[in-house]
Amino acid sequence: MLYLYGKMKVDSMVEISVFINILLSVIMLGSFGIWIYLFFVLRRSFDLSPKIYSDDSLDLEGELVSVIIPARNEEKYIQQCIQSLLDQNMKNYELLLIDDNSTDSTLGLMENYRQDPRVRIFKAGEKPSGWVGKNWPCYIGYQNSKGKYLLFTDADTIHSNRSVRDSLGTLIKQKLDVLTAVPNLKYPNLIVKMVLPVLSIFMFSRYSPMRVNDPSISIGYLFGSFFVITRECYERVGTHAAVKSEIVEDGALGKKLKEEGYKLKMFRGENLLEAYWARDFNTLWNSLKRLIIPLYFTDRLNSILMTIGIFFLMTFPFLILTYCLVAYYGFTAVTDISDNILILFTILSVLSIYATNFYQLKKAKTHKAIYFLGTPIGCFVVSLSFVWSILTSERNAKIKWRDREYNYSKGINC
């Protein structure tokens, strides 16, 4: 009896083990399939996304462009940005430098350029109630601008000497209302170099020019670091006042423009400008929280599902691979075909993650592709930031951005 009982117990444990292996194998196979899909979406985006073109035959000197640069505590970057915009190969443009209550030497550095007739400098002053982020200084820039066309860019961008002319020429020639460009992102340190390329796979897949430019797809997006819009369109869509409470104002404004039927087009702009998305781990962590926390307070279910999906796609395969290596090759031998199937599908899933990240690095050329070896770290940091943000949002949904704190759990304060 004891023998039969023991045998039944062992058989039951084997059945449970097989069931778990099959369940995990299905998850790993699904992960592998999604990463293969992302790889081909990424490849299609890189191959087919339009680039802003140069055409020196266009007469643009009669078209005034107002370049609006909001800046808060940008003493490390503001001079290089201004100088790159003063070196443009066209004459008819103005630079509006808007200081957003900086506590460092940003305003003083701006003042060094006041003698240039193209430069005008303004203080944004205190934000009215309900305004967050850089929406208010952008609005101040618009109010003081004179141009028929408005170019919004960030204070930590570096422009080629053709960025204004070529983007304006493309906007006019293609009869667009608004144009935005994907910048060449700068990754200043090791952790950012390992994390952001992984995130870029999802960002460039969801908000790729191929999707944003498709009239049948409702997705609209602007890169706040660079977009050109006609004054008429900007005023009709409601200016930045229409998204004044949005901390991710570029995404919100792009969505609004697309929904209201304006002619919006996204281009690859790596030859036009360089920009930072994160400068160190602190800004990286808050940038990731900035993606998920606002969504949690507007669409809770979608944010939770997204976080779960990101975890199963980015972190779970590496956890299962570790489990397989430890369990099957550390303590017990592989005894069942389900063990082999799970190992195979897990390896395929992990390899597909590495391969997609390697391809993205090779095509984007932001830094050396060897950083694809940090893929597990990048996946873990992105997943952890999303999970942590969701779990703590009810009691402590704080985002620190440009030396200001926004608390979504208590209403946005700044």
Structure description:
This protein has helices spanning 2-48, 78-86, 106-111, 135-144, 163-173, 190-206, 209-212, 231-237, 249-259, 281-298, 300-314, 316-331, 337-364, 375-396; strands at 65-71, 93-99, 119-123, 149-153, 158-159, 178-182, 184-186, 226-230, 264-268, 273-276, 398-401, 404-407. The radius of gyration is 25 Å and the shape is globular. By secondary structure, it is an alpha/beta fold. It is built from 14 helices and 12 strands. The termini are far apart. The protein folds into 2 domains: 2-45 and 293-410, no CATH class; 65-183 and 223-277, Spore Coat Polysaccharide Biosynthesis Protein SpsA, Chain A, CATH 3.90.550.10. 43% of the residues are buried.
